[in-house]
Amino acid sequence: MKKVVLTYLLLFTIGIFAMAQDGIGISEDLRFDNNLEKELWEAGRQSPFLLFRAVQAEKSLSDVKWDNLLADLDKKYNKKGTHLNVLRNIFEKSHQQLFKTYEQHSTFNDMLEEGKYDCVSASAALALLLDRYGFEYKVVETDYHVFIVVNHEEKDIILESTLPIGGMITAPAEVASYLEGYKANDSVELKSLNQRLGAPKVDLSDNAIFRKVNLTQLAGLQYYNDAISHFNDQSFEKASVQLNKALKLYDSERIEGLKALAEEQANLLASN
């Protein structure tokens, strides 16, 4: 815990002047659950890892599992560089050490503490690792799911985090089929604003969203998922608070739409 605190406080000191002028700095309309969440948010300008830890930051913040995973992967990387075996090792070791139990709306902290994960938290971990080891990749947001496409030696490879077996898809025909299943239609609207991003696609009907997101935007989707939990529990004011933060990280129509709906519902409750 001490190591984590020192890390993000150092980053906060270095980055605070830049954040005052640019990036994800704190606006007056943002409300945080506690000082730890606020400090992690501030430090997230320099380290996306810390930004992912801001949601439900009251949980234990141990780096042990993450550090152990990095130590194992570093050994492989130092031997093979960005070889395909390193990519496979990243995927397999992440499932062995971090991704223990799939559970929709599991935060990054749930993953590090309890091994619970969903497509957002697991894709965040994989993206951070791909950055560390120099892979070219993109995180793809769809209607209700997030996955990763790695470009390795001019070929696309899918990393489907919710499938420990068969989730690293390398065969070109299978990659093409997977991507086709998520292809967006510009004439289609998102069917539900309060459905979390979670498991792989089952419904093969038309899709509204297929876009690349960066790590900051992915952190916004983690706040969006958290807001949906509060919205579905009819805690509309808390949902609105989380959506304000989500929108600061990711100016998205789905986040803006749910924010407007949460505020409307909160006002209706207050007037009754």
What coarse outline follows from CA principal-axis ratios?
globular
User: What's the gyration radius in Å?
Assistant: 19 Å
Q: Major β-sheet, in short? A: 5 strands, antiparallel
Count of beta strands: 7
Output the helix-strand order.
HHHHHEHEHEEEEHEHHH
Calculate the mean pLDDT score and round it.
Answer: 86
Distance between the termini: 45 Å
Helix tally equals 11
Structural category: alpha+beta
Pick out its properties.
globular; two-stranded parallel ribbon; single chain; alpha+beta; 272 residues; disordered N terminus
Could you explain the architecture of this structure?
- This protein is α+β, with helices and mostly antiparallel strands.
- Helices cover about 55% and strands about 10% of the residues.
- The chain is built from 11 helices and 7 strands.
- Strands 6-5-4-3-7 form a 5-stranded antiparallel β-sheet, with helices on both faces. A two-stranded parallel ribbon has the order 1-2.
- A hairpin with an 8-residue loop joins strand 5 (about 155-160) and strand 6.
- Helix 5 (about 85-95) packs across helix 7 (about 120-130) and helix 9 runs antiparallel to helix 10.
- The longest helix is centred in the N-terminal third of the chain and has 20 residues, at about 1-20.
- The chain is globular and about 65 Å long.
- The N and C termini lie far apart (about 45 Å).
- Mean pLDDT is about 85; it is low at about 1-20.
